[in-house]
Give the backbone structure.
Amino acid sequence: MTPAEMGYRLLRTLQAHAERATVARAQRPGTPREVPAPDLAFAGNPWLKTDAKMPAAAYAAAAEEIAEGWLDIYALRHVDLGSPPRWNRDPKSGIEAPATFGKLLNTGDSELVGDIKYLWQPNRHQHLVTLAQAYALTRKRAYLAVIEEHLESWFIACPPGSGPNWSSALEAAVRLLNWSMTWQLLGGSREISPDLRDRWLRSIYEHCEFIRGWFTLHASAGHRLIGEAAGLFVAALTWPHWREARGWASTAKSILEREVRAQVSPDCVSREQSVGVQFFVLDLLQITLLAGKANAQWFSPDYESRVEAMLDFLASLMDAGGNVPMFGDADDAPATRLAPAADFSLARSLLATGAILFKRGDFKMKARVLDDRSRWLLGAAADGQFAALDVETTRLPLRQAFPEGGYFVAGCAFDTPAEIRLVADAGPVGYRGAASHGHADALSFTLSAGGRELLVDPGTYAYHTQEAWRRYFRSTAAHNTLRIDGLDQSVAGGRFFWQRKARAGCSLWLSSPEKDSFEAWHDGYMRLDDPVKHRRLIELDKRQRRVLIEETLEMAEEHEVELYFHFSELCRVDRVADGFVATQGPVSVKIQLPACEGASAHLYHGSLAPLCGWRSRTFDVRVPTPTVVWQARLAGPARLRTELCISFS
């Protein structure tokens, strides 16, 4: 942490201790908290649209599951949260978090609160939106009754300032976003009892004031601040019933405008070097853009153009099968969920919404179809607008180079069955000093052919718990790159902190109809007693469908060198005379490893000793996957050559 952030955190701690004493006095019997009465004459314009053509059956089926008490939470399926739900309990471990002052609660202590992500997820109240959608489409009052029961019980179990659900401004903001959607779908105050409406509005005011006074400033996980501002902005527009609402909206909007410029590179890649964060932020930026337009709160042209350019980056990473590399942290937990979970792709949905917002045929081509999330956001006219987009006349050329973000896309026959797409990473570890959501993955790459993943990024799997797995999935060994002496390129200082970060950069990028060439370097091993500088050249011969990878190691003494190649869990990998062949359906890649005296190659698949051969597509779920590891002990300057030959049957 910088001195400024250390000082800020100390001030926040002192502030929290002072607030705890104030709250304790305010909560004494006969001393109600002061919340001004709302003026319901002022109402915001809704930004969600209900369309009778929506598939009511899908929402009703999801709502029935919730009404019966079942929720899916990350790796847990059909979790019984209780009736009413136990809002302060981690459903995975069963640990009940204490009802102490939230701002001073250590949510990283798994013995105290369990896995906080599992506890927080149902408290985001995404399931209330599903119930409200089903109610709006079917008018079945049983769904409304569950919403009322869950809200009433939440207000009782989670009094302001108390417990884990009042420890994070981001979680409060995400809850407000989902409350806003629920409120709109229920027609505001018309569908609920006056008593519940008053308690709900009181809690909304308390949430807004909590966020306003507890923004995550100076933090390395910058997307938290965007999420907090987005929730406060949408709340101020949805419930403009207090004088303070104008200030909430103004403050939140200023933060959003500022942070989009600060946290997104000029080529519109999230500076957190996390594709998952890019998804999370894009979801919020699209919602704030639409909520603002509905209420005459216009964002700057630069804000809109950055949203469009962030979608450009997403479209450039996405292969013909809709797969997007999972660089950096990802936890499969968008802030909002407006579509049934089955077969829902947030990446395609973001592009579908973007296609209409920015009249981009290339986004439409990537999205393929208009999804329900886009329909809820854009209304009944969305289908016609989407259909009217001409893919050929409204598409822009594919962007292949994102030099500030550090990503480069090599390939040919893009978005066809013969596509080859290779995404190489020469970006920084992450955002600001801690780089909380970046991985030690400099010079790694992913490869797909014909829309089928071959070489993949492994994902994330764990956050606050299971430290050994957290270390593995962030490590150099978990990525398609080179490792020296069994050490990570960057030195971890904690679960969300890199004590020493490798610097990386691209020294060459050339693209022609015949060949794409990428060359980059990093200095992560310059810290060794005998410093080692790693350079990697990747060349794609488009005619021969061959990838050449050349490693250059500038060093003086002897070192243990390992090359890692992580294949999709859908691949079958077989050893052949001069390497390995990985096959998935009609595509295959033959890997010819460096010829070096004393070298060896091993194939791992879900190994625990050593930890190797694992992939996590969603948070807290891991599956075995084939991983080839080449290793040798090399002395002095060295050059290694690997060839990948891609075939279509």
Remarks:
- The CA atoms of residues 471 and 494 lie 9 Å apart.
- The two ends are 53 Å apart (CA to CA).
- Residues 293-399 form one domain.
